[in-house]
Amino acid sequence: MPTLEAWQKVFIDLSNNNGKEFVASVHGPDYTGAAIPHELSCQACHAGPADNDFTGMAEAHQGMIVDPSRPGDVGCNATGCHDAQPFESACSSSDCHPTHAENWSSSLHANLQGEVNAVEGRCAIDLDQSGYREDFNNQCAECHATCGQCHVSRPNSAGGGFVYLEGATVSRSHLFQSKPHMTEQCTACHGTRIATDYLKQGDGIPDANVEDIHWRLRSFTCLDCHSGTELHGNGEVLDHRYEVAEMPRCEKCHSSLEPDNNFHEFHVGVEGRNLQCQICHAQPYRNCTGCHDTVDGTVYEEEFNLKIGRNDPAAFPYRQDKGYDYVLVRHVPVARNTYEHWGLIDVPNYTSKPTWLYTSPHNINKTTAQAASCGSCHDSDFYLKTVDLTTPDERTANAGIVMD
After folding, report:
1. Are 195 and 186 in contact (CB under 8 A)?
2. Is residue 27 part of a domain?
3. Any domain includes 350
4. Which residues contact 124 (CB under 8 A, 6 or more apart)?
């Protein structure tokens, strides 16, 4: 068990972190002895019996709520330790964070509406009316996040537990963070793509790839680009992550283009050949080419490449605001048999949308293979062509975006 002095050192180090990441034990306890702005008892969030009102561990945990920020969570009721009374999120109390909690409840982080729409659209079902909601929850919905999994602990889908500070020997325990920790919380969930791209972490990444320039040269964390308003939501139910109004744009920082740059002059803002920025400035990224089944252990194939497709309004209706004519596309982990273990053998709308979808990789670099010269991109393997699509389903689904 760490000594009090060890805890104090960690928290003092946190408070002296040059303001880069504000961490405060705002709800108590504060082991440094500092004043606590909003001191709460354990029971204020976790319920359970009052302090010193029990004789052993079983009584101490009677009625305790494991995740107070998860609406309806009653903890481990199956063991007989907790009652079955659902509750509102502890964070949503009128005395706490009602606006943030209400906005979060309709955000994509909470309802996974983008995933719901993807499944319902391809399978031509309503998850609730068809009885497949439980299958979806068991396989897909574990990746949603609660307030606590961004501001107190690691996400459940990443193993849970309290956040550890780099170089520290003890966890942050119940320290409430105003900003999530990039690797312990953000990329703990968004690891397959974001951590792979941004930090160059993971298996199979091409040796030639480098970390995203914003991390390598500027040490930007997720919160330097993604605001709290974007992450919490604004109370509106959206169908897709690219519909979020507050999402970052390259132009926010790069409002002016390099002078005397023939590539920009020819490809940016020009009708008929207006390119998404990442086409020239992203590196090869992960594409999943088979079934994404985390239940029965099916292994899905993947490869790293970079593919350019047409920004077809019928295929990508959520990404027409900038008038891009061409965009990067990524193969998503879906196949005809993805939902077979649910009992969904027939997927009638499987080819109704591309299997190569609009993407915005987080592995930006100023110089890339495709931007080395005109000839390195034009009529190259970077174009998504019919010859790249090896099955009738693939050719039908992606007919509107190929660049033959």
Report:
1. no
2. no
3. yes
4. 347, 348, 349
Token pair, residue 312, equals: 């077809």
Q: Number of folded domains in the chain?
A: 1
Instruction: Give me 129's structure tokens.
Output: 């009316």
Are residues 196 and 190 in contact, defined by beta-carbon separation less than 8 angstroms?
no
Q: Which two tokens stand for residue 190?
A: 């968004």
Residues 6+ apart with CB under 8 A from 135: 339, 342, 343
Instruction: With beta carbons less than 8 A apart as the criterion, state whether 280 and 290 touch.
Output: no
Domain range holding 361? 252-404
The CA distance from 286 to 278, in Å, is: 15
pLDDT tens digits, 30-80: 656 667 778 888 888 888 888 888 888 889 888 888 888 877 654 433 333
Tens of pLDDT along 267-325?
988 999 999 999 999 999 999 876 655 555 455 678 999 999 999 999 999 878 788 99
Residue 343, domain member (yes or no)? yes
Residue at 222 is within a domain: no
